[in-house]
Structure formats: structure tokens, C-alpha cells
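TL;DR need C-alpha cells for one chain.
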Amino acid sequence: MTARYFHDSRDYSFADAAMAAMQAEIRRLQRWKADASAVLKMWDDAYERADITGLIGARKPDMMAAEIERLRAALNPPPTRSPDTDR
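>> reply
TL;DR here they are.
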């Protein structure tokens, strides 16, 4: 006895819809990957331009934040006290 498979047009339309949904998701993920890669490249460029050297294994965002704080402190030093105001 052989098995017989009967397909009607609903089987194909469901498969077509599923395939279209998968293709749309693949395109969406490819766009997301391209956007994310562009953002990461910009951060890498900024990191290189800042000429930050750190320890092996140190996180780039942490080193970049420390450099930003260092630059802020250099541009806006805390106010110094004069001898007259210490009384």
C-alpha cells in the first residue's frame, strides 16, 4: 500500500506566505546588521581618533567614558580657593 498525498491550493498558499514572511524577516535582519555595523564602525573610528590606549581586555566604552571625563576636567578645572576664603 502506498501513501497518497493530496494537496490543494491552500497548502501552497500557506507555504508561499510562510516563505514570504521568512524572506521579509531576513531582509529586516540584514538591514539591522548593516545599520549596527555602521554604528560600530563610527565608534571604532572615534576610539582610534581619541588615541586611547588601555589594558588588554578593557572595555572600549569604559575607556572612552574615562577619556571624556578627563577632557571635561581639563577644560573645566574645579575652582581654586584663595587664601582669603579659607577663614
